From TrEMBL:
Protein name (database record): Pyruvate dehydrogenase E1 component subunit alpha
Catalysed reaction, written as an equation: N(6)-[(R)-lipoyl]-L-lysyl-[protein] + pyruvate + H(+) = N(6)-[(R)-S(8)-acetyldihydrolipoyl]-L-lysyl-[protein] + CO2
Residues of the Dehydrogenase E1 component domain: 71-363
InterPro entries: DH_E1 (IPR001017), PDH_E1_Alpha_Subunit (IPR050642), Pyrv_DH_E1_asu_subgrp-y (IPR017597), THDP-binding (IPR029061)
GO BP, sorted A to Z: pyruvate decarboxylation to acetyl-CoA
Originating organism: Lupinus angustifolius
Cofactor or coenzyme needed: thiamine diphosphate
Alphabetic keyword roster: Oxidoreductase, Pyruvate, Thiamine pyrophosphate
GO molecular function (one): pyruvate dehydrogenase (acetyl-transferring) activity
Role, per record: The pyruvate dehydrogenase complex catalyzes the overall conversion of pyruvate to acetyl-CoA and CO(2). It contains multiple copies of three enzymatic components: pyruvate dehydrogenase (E1), dihydrolipoamide acetyltransferase (E2) and lipoamide dehydrogenase (E3).
Group of enzyme by EC: oxidoreductase
Pfam families per UniProt: E1_dh
Subunit and partners: Tetramer of 2 alpha and 2 beta subunits.
Length: 373
């Protein structure tokens, strides 16, 4: 289907959307402006199990598309810079990067409120940012500084922001899913009409605890949305080698499921909205987001021994979530290539400033020592 053209460029979408964002401020949410709505079809059809899928026609605005572009570019840059800091030994310990998967974080955030909860595994930097965390807190935490979101004591895998509905950051594969169903139980008990997104990988999808938690959630009609981020590998093992049925959206059997292109932020938004409505009325649902991680599993994995370089570059070329939005922005005359390039330069600078601040900040503070028994 041909993409619809935007009628006017009122509101100069380049300016107000993101210009207030700096490393001291959290990622902005997609602000609602009066710019006219656009309807854009998702990259691929949704595949449904035990339910009717939502429409492929997604309503958006020029400012939302701009914010998707900016937020994903910022996340990408932040992760790439974390890679360099790790190699410079300024970040130690475990570190799992999210570049490639950014559309999941921004699309989901665009569909929900911060009263809804998100809980995830160890690949958590970008989700933290989308939930209102700052880059200063990210880099401080990664470098073990007291300004980090867990006071520098959690590190890469343990980001948290409870006041904005972000419940971490968990290192034990799959363990966040029963915890997420517990949050959904609390939401139902309190009758507060919010939902929980419990995110896990294709590797975690084979764990028993996931099915035990899903059974309870289904018995009690809990507002739990299980999000399988299928990036096709669990460490160095391809999904097809680890799962007899890699159709993760169907693995809930009696629980409905939807499969979507997790590299299309608009598709993610559409399905998350649908899932929230569904979960509040009927209980759990599984969303399988087909995505890809560009980096290796963690910093000790170059990511190139169990997959070919052609596979990685093919995904970058054909499915990259940022490039998809860039094309939409340009083809709808919302922004020019040059304006987007300028924005990328500005983001690069913001990231550098955030790193410099995190490096300097907190070094003059009194060290807090914890004595273990
Ligand atoms: C219970 C448990 N078993 C094993 C590990 C080691 N481990 C860490 S990540 C991982 C792979 C998980 O892959 P997946 O769920 O697909 O998530 P992804 O890393 O792809 O985001 C494994 C086996 C662990 N942390 N916890
Ligand atoms: Mg995986």
């Amino acid at each position: 289907m041909a993409l619809p053209r935007i009628v006017s460029r009122s509101n100069n979408p380049l300016k107000p959307v993101s210009s207030f964002l700096s490393y001291t401020l959290p990622l902005h949410r997609s602000i609602s402006t009066n710019d006219s709505p656009l309807t854009i079809e998702t990259s691929l059809p949704f595949i449904a199990h035990n339910c009717d899928p939502p429409s492929r026609a997604v309503t958006t605005t020029s400012s939302e598309l701009m914010s998707f572009f900016r937020d994903m570019t910022l996340m990408r840059r932040m992760e790439l810079a974390a890679d360099s800091l790790y190699k410079a030994r300024l970040i130690r310990g475990f570190c799992h990067l999210y570049d490639g998967q950014e559309a999941v974080a921004v699309g989901m955030e665009a569909a929900i409120t911060r009263k809804d909860a998100i809980i995830t595994a160890y690949r958590d930097h970008c989700t933290f940012l989308s939930r209102g965390g700052t880059m200063h807190e990210v880099y401080s935490e990664l470098m073990g500084r007291c300004d980090g979101c867990s006071k520098g004591k959690g590190g890469s895998m343990h980001f948290y922001r409870k006041e904005n509905g972000f419940y971490g950051g968990h290192g034990i594969v799959g363990a966040q899913v029963p915890l997420g169903c517990g949050i959904a139980l609390a939401q139902k008990y309190c009758k507060d009409e919010n939902v929980t997104f419990a995110m896990y990988g294709d590797g975690a999808a084979n764990q028993g605890q996931l099915f035990e938690a899903l059974n309870m959630a289904a018995l009690w009609d809990l507002p739990a949305i299980l999000v399988c981020e299928n990036n096709h590998y669990g460490m160095g093992t391809a999904a097809w080698k680890a799962a007899k049925s890699p159709a993760y959206y169907k693995r809930g059997d009696y629980v409905p499921g939807l499969k979507l292109d997790g590299m299309d932020a608009l598709a993610v938004k559409q399905v998350c909205k649908f899932a929230k409505d569904h979960a509040l009325k009927n209980g759990p649902i599984i969303l399988e987001m087909d995505t890809y991680r560009y980096h290796g599993h963690s910093m000790s994995d170059p990511g190139s021994t169990y997959r070919t370089r052609d596979e990685i570059s093919g995904v970058r070329l054909e499915r990259d979530p940022i490039e998809r939005i860039r094309k939409l922005l340009v083809s709808h005359d919302i922004a020019t290539e040059k304006e987007l390039k300028d924005m990328e330069k500005e983001i690069r600078k913001e990231v550098e400033e955030a790193i410099a601040k995190a490096k300097a900040y907190g070094t003059d503070r009194k060290e807090v020592r914890v004595t273990l028994p």
